[in-house]
Design goal:
Elements (H helix, E strand, L loop, with lengths): L3 H14 L2 H34 L5 H10 L5 H12 L14 H24 L4 H9 L4 H11 L1 H16 L3 H7 L9 H11 L2 H29 L3
Length: about 230
């Protein structure tokens, strides 16, 4: 077995020289997670806003549910969606299993509770009177929403960053729904798992470097946005 130093050096060479297979995996991972977070962001933000500014039976239960689902296991999401999308499942006719679309759906489900819980918390920092004032001054509901959303934009951006960090690093749902198909559904976490099981550590380490670097960037950005979003 090669020394750790030589494996790390090989991993760095793969990153720097633009290894085609490596960067294909990175591209697939980023594209799927970006599509998922973009699809989930607006409806989840609207849910967070709705929970913050309306009062209806079951509201507290929905808030508790969103907070509970923050720790939703990725493998559980993958299992449920696998059953639904399999040939014997109720959605089998859609033929989505082992496709990028199935992975996007799984990541939407995983990111949605995070986005709802964090945007709800962000909207709660703005008093209800801001909504009432905007409506009194003649703003329609859509305009009022965007006025308030602008006030808590750092909190919303922070929720998006947190949600993105959650889904791009998950392996359970992606493995079950995508099937880990090279050049199609193999993303960073599933590739790391596969290469490690094969004893091929260089590519796994290279992908790990990308994932750790991204995680550092996301955490730093999240802390910055949380700080900017604090009420002075």
């Amino acid at each position: 077995m090669d020394s750790i130093g030589s494996i790390i050096l090989e991993a760095l060479v793969m990153l720097v020289t633009g290894d085609a297979e490596l960067w294909s995996i990175i591209s697939i991972s980023f594209s799927i997670s970006t599509i998922a977070i973009l699809i989930a962001a607006l409806p989840a933000t609207l849910c967070g806003f709705f929970l913050a500014y309306t009062n209806f039976p079951g509201r507290r239960l929905l808030i508790s549910l969103a907070n509970t689902l923050l720790a939703l296991p990725a493998v559980a999401v993958g299992l449920v969606l696998y059953i639904l999308l399999s040939h014997q499942g109720p959605l089998g006719d859609w033929r989505l299993l082992f496709t990028q679309s199935a992975m996007v759906i799984g990541q939407i489900v995983l990111s949605f509770p995070i986005l709802v819980a964090m945007t709800h918390a962000a909207f709660q920092t703005v008093d209800l009177s801001a909504w009432e004032t905007a409506r009194t001054l003649g703003a329609n509901p859509v305009q009022s929403f965007f006025l308030i959303a602008r006030e808590v934009r750092f909190g919303i951006f922070g929720a998006v960053v947190a949600g993105y960090g959650r889904i791009i690093a998950e392996v359970g749902a992606s493995m079950m729904l995508g099937g880990n198909i090279l050049h199609y559904t193999r993303n960073i976490p599933t590739a790391i798992a596969l290469e490690t099981s094969k004893g091929e550590f260089a590519q796994g380490i290279a992908l790990g470097i990308v994932l750790v670097s991204l995680s550092f960037f996301l955490v730093t950005t999240l802390h910055y946005l949380q700080g900017k979003g604090q009420v002075k």
